[in-house]
C-alpha cells in the first residue's frame, strides 16, 4: 500500500493462519530454505528485521562496507550450498554493494540482495535534492537475474519465493528485491511457510534415456575422465562425485575455478593446464564427463589448446542445470540436464553393475604429480634481494595448512604462483575465478567461516594490494573470533601490473606510474590495532612454524611476509612467472 491510501480492516486470523509483520514473514520464508544468516549494515528500513532475526537465533554479520556485504554473502553461499541474504540500506548502501551483484552474477552465485528504499509516495514525487536517494531498481536489472520490488505487503510470499526460485534455477545467480519503507510495518495474515519442494523445482533429475546413453559411452571408453567445476563444491556434492569417479576408475581434472579437492580422491585429482600430467590426461581422454562447469575460457571451451591434441573426436557428457547452456561453447554428445546432486547419483546407479577397472596409467599419473610437487618445493628459491621468493611463500604457507582447512585466496601474481606451487589439497577453496576481482578474499573468507559454523581453520593467502581493499573487515574477524590465519605477501606494489608495464614497454623504459606504493605499511601492526595477533616473518623456514603456532592459539592472526618484488612480477624481462604463458591463453583464446 502507498502511505496515503487506506488499508482495509484486518481480518481475524483463521486456525492455521496468524498475523505477522512483513519483516517477520521474510525471515520465515528464508528459514524454510534452511537459511538463518543475514549480512549487512542495518538502517531504519532494517532495524526491525535485525531485532527479529536476533530473537530467532540468526547469525547477524555486519561488515564495514556494503561491497564487503555482498562478498561475505557470496563466500557463505559457496560453503553452505544455499542462497545467501545480503541487506543494503537505501541510496549509497545499495549503490556501494552493486559491484558485488555483478561479481555474484559472473561467479554464478545465488545471493539475494534486499535493498531499502523510500516510501513510494516520496519516491514518485517530482522533486529535487532528496537525501540518500536514487532510483534503484532499474540500475541493477543488468547486474542480476531478476530485479523486483515488494510494492504491497501481500506480495511478500510470492516475491521472496520467486527470488529463491530464480536464484537457484538454471545458472545460479543474484536477485535484487527492493523493500520500500511503506511496507515494513504492514501486517500479514499467513499460513506456515511452505517447504522448498512445494513451490519450486527441487534438485531435478536428468532424462533416463540420456543417462543410459551416457553410461554406455563410459562403459565403452578407453580413457574416460571427469572434469569438475566449482559448482561441485558449491552444491556440496563431493561425496557423490567421488562415488562416480571410483565407478569410472578415472582421473579427475579440475578447472581453475573448481579447484577444491574432493575428500577421498585427492590423489587422482589434477589441475587442468598447470600440471604436465593434466596435459597427458586430456590428450588420452576419449570421453569427458563435465560436472558443474561452464566449459568456459579458462579451459579453452573444451575444444582449443590442449583439447586440440590427442583424441580430438572425444565424446562429451555434460551435467548441467541450465538447459540453455548446453552446446553454447562446444558441441555436447550427451546432455544430462538437471541438478548435479541428483544427476550424478543417477549416472552412478547406471554404472554400478559394471564398474570400470582403474585406468592403467592412473598410478603412474599419481606418482608423477607427487614428484612434480616435491620438485617444486625443493628448487632453488634464492632471490637477488634476499627476500622470500613468491613460490617459496606458497610452498611454506600451504605445507602448513591444516588438512581440514578452508583455503581463501586473493591477489594477482600471488594467485598465479599458487596454481603452480600449491602443496596442499584443500576440500574447500574460495576465490574469484571468473570476474577476476581483487579484494574479495577477506570478505569471502569471513562468509565461508560463518557458513562453516566457525569450526574449521581458514588459511587466507593474499597479496598486499588485494588485502588493502577491505582491511577494515579485520574487525569482523576479531569480533567473531574466526579461526583464521591471514598470510600477506608484501612486495609494496601492484605486482602483476608492474609486469604488464615491463611486458608492454620493456624493463626500465617507464617509471611504471601508479603501481608502486609505500614501503612503510606493516600489516602485522595494523592487525594488532584491531586486536588480532600480528607476526612479521622474513625467513622461509620460519613461515610454516608461525602459521602452525597461530592456528594452535585458537585466535585469528595476520602474518606479514616481505617477498621479492622482481620475482613476483616475473623478473625484469617479465618471463619468469610460472605458467604465465598458459594463463594468457585464457583470454579470448589467447588474443586478449
How far the N terminus sits from the C terminus, by CA atoms, comes to 51 Å
In the CATH hierarchy, the architecture of the largest domain is 3-Layer(aba) Sandwich
Any idea what the shape is?
A: globular
- DSSP summary, beta strand count: 20
Share of β-strand residues: 15-25%
Strand order of the largest sheet: 3-2-4-5-7-6
Count of domains: 3
Name of the level-1 CATH class of the largest domain: Alpha Beta
Sheet bearing the most strands, described? 6 strands, parallel
The number of helices is 22
Helix content: 25-40%
Rounded to an integer in angstroms, the radius of gyration calculated over CA atoms is: 25 Å
The CATH topology name of the largest domain reads Rossmann fold
In the CATH hierarchy, what is the superfamily of the largest domain? Thiamin diphosphate (ThDP)-binding fold, Pyr/PP domains
Describe it for me?
The protein is of the alpha/beta class and 592 residues long. It has three domains: 18-198, Rossmann fold (3-Layer(aba) Sandwich); 208-360, 3-Layer(aba) Sandwich (Rossmann fold); 379-587, Thiamin diphosphate (ThDP)-binding fold, Pyr/PP domains (Rossmann fold), CATH 3.40.50. The strands form four sheets. Strands 3-2-4-5-7-6 form a six-stranded parallel β-sheet, with helices on both faces. The chain has a six-stranded parallel β-sheet with strand order 11-10-9-12-13-14, with helices on both faces. A six-stranded parallel β-sheet has the order 16-15-17-18-20-19, with helices on both faces. Helix 14 links the parallel strand 15 (406-409) and strand 16.
Amino acid at each position: 500500500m502507498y502511505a496515503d491510501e487506506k488499508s482495509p480492516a484486518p481480518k481475524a486470523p483463521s486456525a492455521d493462519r496468524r498475523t505477522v509483520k512483513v519483516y517477520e514473514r521474510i525471515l520465515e520464508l528464508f528459514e524454510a530454505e534452511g537459511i538463518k544468516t543475514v549480512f549487512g549494515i542495518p538502517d531504519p528500513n532494517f532495524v526491525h528485521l535485525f531485532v527479529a532475526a536476533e530473537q530467532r537465533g540468526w547469525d547477524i554479520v555486519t561488515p564495514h562496507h556494503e561491497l564487503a556485504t555482498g562478498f561475505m554473502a557470496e563466500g557463505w553461499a559457496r560453503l553452505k550450498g544455499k542462497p545467501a541474504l545480503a541487506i543494503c540500506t537505501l541510496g549509497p548502501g545499495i549503490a556501494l554493494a552493486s559491484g558485488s551483484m555483478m561479481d555474484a552474477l559472473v561467479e554464478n552465485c545465488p545471493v539475494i540482495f534486499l535493498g531499502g528504499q523510500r516510501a513510494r509516495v516520496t519516491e514518485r514525487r517530482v522533486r529535487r535534492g532528496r537525501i540518500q536517494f536514487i532510483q534503484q531498481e532499474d540500475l541493477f536489472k543488468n547486474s542480476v537475474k531478476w530485479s523486483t520490488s515488494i510494492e504491497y505487503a501481500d506480495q511478500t510470499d510470492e516475491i521472496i519465493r520467486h527470488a529463491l526460485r530464480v536464484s537457484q534455477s538454471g545458472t545460479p545467480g543474484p536477485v535484487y528485491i527492493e523493500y520500500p519503507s511503506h511496507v515494513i510495518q504492514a501486517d500479514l495474515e499467513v499460513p506456515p511457510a511452505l517447504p522448498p519442494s512445494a513451490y519450486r523445482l527441487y534438485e531435478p533429475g536428468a532424462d533416463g534415456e540420456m543417462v543410459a546413453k551416457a553410461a554406455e559411452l563410459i562403459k565403452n571408453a578407453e580413457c574416460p575422465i571427469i572434469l569438475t567445476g566449482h559448482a561441485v563444491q558449491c552444491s556440496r556434492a563431493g561425496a557423490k562425485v567421488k562415488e562416480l569417479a571410483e565407478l569410472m576408475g578415472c582421473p579427475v581434472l579440475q578447472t581453475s575455478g573448481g579447484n577444491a579437492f574432493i575428500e577421498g580422491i585427492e590423489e587422482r585429482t589434477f589441475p587442468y593446464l598447470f600440471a604436465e600430467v593434466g596435459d597427458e590426461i586430456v590428450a588420452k581422454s576419449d570421453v569427458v564427463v563435465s560436472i558443474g562447469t561452464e566449459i568456459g575460457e579458462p579451459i579453452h571451451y573444451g575444444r582449443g589448446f590442449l583439447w586440440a591434441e590427442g583424441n580430438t573426436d572425444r565424446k562429451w557428457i555434460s551435467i548441467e542445470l541450465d538447459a540453455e547452456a548446453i552446446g553454447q561453447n562446444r558441441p555436447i554428445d550427451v546432455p544430462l540436464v538437471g541438478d548435479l546432486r541428483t544427476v550424478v547419483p543417477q549416472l552412478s546407479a547406471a554404472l554400478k553393475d559394471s564398474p570400470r577397472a582403474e585406468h592403467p596409467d592412473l598410478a603412474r599419473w599419481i606418482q608423477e604429480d607427487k614428484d612434480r610437487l616435491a620438485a617444486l618445493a625443493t628448487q632453488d628459491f634464492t632471490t637477488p634481494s634476499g627476500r622470500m621468493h613468491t613460490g617459496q611463500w606458497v610452498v611454506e604457507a600451504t605445507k602448513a595448512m591444516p588438512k581440514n582447512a578452508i583455503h581463501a585466496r586473493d591477489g594477482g601474481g600471488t594467485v598465479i604462483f599458487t596454481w603452480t606451487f600449491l602443496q596442499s589439497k584443500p576440500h574447500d577453496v574460495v576465490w574469484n575465478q571468473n570476474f577476476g576481482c581483487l579484494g574479495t578474499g577477506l570478505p569471502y573468507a569471513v562468509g565461508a567461516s560463518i557458513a562453516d559454523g566457525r569450526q574449521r581453520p581458514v588459511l587466507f593467502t593474499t597479496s598486499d594490494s588485494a588485502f588493502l581493499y577491505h582491511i577494515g573487515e579485520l574487525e569482523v574477524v576479531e569480533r567473531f573470533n574466526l579461526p583464521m590465519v591471514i598470510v600477506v605477501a608484501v612486495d609494496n606494489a601492484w605486482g602483476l601490473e608492474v609486469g604488464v608495464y615491463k611486458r608492454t614497454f620493456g624493463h626500465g623504459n617507464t617509471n611504471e606510474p601508479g603501481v608502486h606504493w609505500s614501503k612503510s605499511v606493516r600489516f602485522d601492526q595494523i592487525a594488532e590495532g584491531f586486536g588480532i595477533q600480528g607476526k612479521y616473518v622474513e625467513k622461509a623456514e620460519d613461515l610454516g612454524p608461525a602459521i602452525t603456532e597461530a592456528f594452535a592459539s585458537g585466535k585469528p592472526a595476520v602474518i606479514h611476509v616481505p617477498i621479492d618484488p622482481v620475482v613476483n612480477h616475473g623478473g625484469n624481462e617479465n618471463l619468469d612467472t610460472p605458467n604465465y604463458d598458459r594463463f594468457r591463453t585464457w583470454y579470448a583464446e589467447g588474443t586478449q
